[in-house]
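User: Please predict the structure of the protein below. I'd like the answer in structure-token form so I can feed it into my own downstream comparison script.

Assistant: Understood. Taking the following sequence of 445 residues as input:
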Amino acid sequence: MKRKLQKFLQRLRFLQILGLIFALLLCIKLLSACTNQSIVTLSFVVPEREAQYWKPLIEQFQQTNNQNIRIDLANFSNNFQQNPNLTNDLKKTYISDFKSKSASYDLIYMDIIWVPEFAHKEWVMDLTQEFPQEELRGFIRSEVDSGRYEDKLYRIPFRADVGVLFYRQDWLNEVKQKRPETFNDLLRISQKVKQQLPEKVQYGYLWQSKPDEGLAAVFVEVLYGYGGFWINNKKVGLNQPEAIQAVEFLRDTIKLGISPKDITTYDEQYTRSLFRDRQAVFMRNWPNVWLDVNGSEPSFRGKIAIKPMVYAEGKRSVASKGGWGFGIAKNTKHKKEALQAIKFFTSAASQQKFTLAYASVPSRRNLFFEPKIVAKYSHYPELLKVVENSVARPRIPQYAQASCILQKYLSEALNPDNNGYKQAMDAAAKETQNLLDSGKYNCQI
């Protein structure tokens, strides 16, 4: 009897040990599963030139706010080879992902001109109910409105952008000239500075004329500066008198030797390189170029200033509206976490940090007067006025095609040897009207 009891106890202990081992393994498995489920990875991609400035914000978001959300900025992934510098390259990256069976991006870092197309094709979520009006009051109203399509909100603004005129204040002082206000002022002063400072000045005015989105933005500013329009209620203004005046002004900058003969090949990066190398009096570009063109030499800093774009007599200064913000991919599985990330990145604190580092334009009104920002960039209070007087490029789902048409014919019209520039703009107007009427057009440059 005693021996049977001992065997029973031994068997019981063995079963208990097995049970403990099984329970331990089960706990480990469940713990691992819970841990894996609690960590959500959100991915997005940005223009390559600004990628490095996102690192501090991403680290702050993960360390101080959300240990359970990981941000994967695709620019730094080993398997990401595109490194998109141009807006179109980045757009192609997102569209390719939208169409893939295994979508990679949850957050969509959107250029302002993509919103109507992405919303129309239902690639991004409607965020109207997620951001009540009180949460949007701190933003510049036009920046919020630019994220809407058919009265629904699809993009929350992160940074605004507008075209501005950079100029060499020291050279203007040297020849006793005030900064230009009108197109004629720009031509006259450019010629005067070139004549009086030939050993210093090579060009009067640099602008972006390579057939890409930069050219469309430049033309919008000149076109509206003459009182014209591109598309208004399905009416096209590219062959109207104001549009022809805009083309003639840009042609004159080349014909008069104020702009380089080969400027039709210049993009934003190349023009800022020339301006940074002290080769021009004036340059049209975006505000974040400030850090690059001011240089690090103490003798050079403080000699460059920014002002609103010039305009025609009797008209007003108009800047082309740019800007970037966040949407959420329609097919994401992590909407809740994506909303949390957007609210952090578009907050005043995050925008302030990014603005100080990148010289970008915030989308929140109060930041234009924030002491730390104004101490570093004294022109920001004036920059708010430029943002408020900016004009959006046509907000239509077919914008990419409309821009392609404009770039194609405008490039022809800007050739100073081409006397058929009016006919080129007639063709641009006709093809754009066909696009609006049919909704389809295959434009290629």
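That's the full token string. Residues 2-38 form the longest helix (37 residues).
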